[in-house]
Design a protein that fits this description.
alpha/beta, D-Maltodextrin-Binding Protein, domain 2, Double Stranded RNA Binding Domain, 5-stranded mixed sheet, globular, binds ligand PBG, Porphobilinogen deaminase, EC 2.5.1.61, porphyrin biosynthesis
Amino acid sequence: MMTETTTTTTTGTLRLGTRRSKLAMAQSGLVAQAVRDVTGRPVELVEITTYGDTSRESLASIGGTGVFVSALRDALLDGAVDFAVHSLKDLPTYGAEGLVLAAVPKREDPRDALVARDGLTFEQLPDGARVGTGSPRRAAQLNAWARALGRRIETVSIRGNVDTRIGFVRSGELDAVVLAAAGLNRLGRIGEATQLISPDACLPAPGQGALAVECRADAPELAAQLAVLDDPHTRAAVTAERSLLATLEAGCSAPVGALADVLAGGPATELRLRGVVGTVDGTSLVQLSTTGPVPATGGEAAALGRELAADMLAKGAAGLMGERAL
Ligand SMILES: NCc1[nH]cc(CCC(=O)O)c1CC(=O)O
C-alpha cells in the first residue's frame, strides 16, 4: 500500500472471542500476544460459552456439528468480537458463510500423550488396564495397539477438561488417560505425560495441535494483519488432513486419524499424509499413507487428502465408521 490510511478497522482495540476453559484461554493468550506483536494494537479477550462447554453429553453423541465453535462464530457474525481462536480439530470441515480462516499458526506437537499411573508407558500397562478417552479414534487405535502387543485394554469413555481427565488417574479410578500433547504443552503440564505416543501407533485427529484464527470476510484489512501469523506448512498439512476427513464424510467424533507432515531433507521436500479409520474395538483398521510435493496451493493440499480418502474408501473404510455424519 502506498498511502497510510487510518480507519477504525486497522487501529484500536481488537476483541478476541475465546472459550473460557483454561486450555482455550492459554491458546487465545498466545495468539493475542502474537497479534499485539504484529499489529501493535491492544487485544482484549472476550469469553464466550459454547454448547460443548455446558453440555455433559458425550462428545461422540453431540459432536460433529461444531459444538465448541458455533457460539464463537455467532459472536463474530454479530460483531460482538473481531476475531476468534479455535482448536483446529474442533472446527467443522465446512466453512462458515461470511467468515474466513485468516491464519493457521505454526502447529504445536500433534501427538497424543499418555498420562498413566506410576510412570507407565502404554507397552507397560497390564492386561485389562482401564484407559480413559472419549474419542472413538483413540479407542480404535489403542485397542488395536494393545492387541498387537498380545493383550487387551478396557477403554472407558470420559469427558472433561484436562484437570478432570488427569484426575481419574490420580484418584486411581483409571490406569491411564490419553490427551493431546499440545494441550498439555500449552498448559505447562507436559511433564505429567508418561509417554508421547508415536503417530505410528496412534494417528492424531485431523488438525490436532493446530489453532484456527477466524474473522469476518468483510474485514479484509484485519484478515491481512492476522495472515502474518499463518504458517504455510501447517496450513498445507491441516488442509490435507481435513480434506481427507471431509471426503470420508466423517465428523470430528468419528474414528478417523490423519497426520500430514513435511518431510525435509534429501533432494526434494515432500508432504506425507497418513490416514486411519477403524472400528472402536480395534479389530479392523484401514491405514494408508501417501506422499506428494509440498502443495503450493490449498487446492493441491486438498487433492492429496481426497485421493487418500478415496483409496481408504476402496479398502472398505466406510463400513468401519459405523454411523456416518449426514
Ligand atoms: N477434543 C477437545 C480438544 N480440542 C483440542 C484439544 C487439544 C488441543 C489441540 O489438539 O490443539 C482438545 C483436548 C484433547 O484432545 O485432549
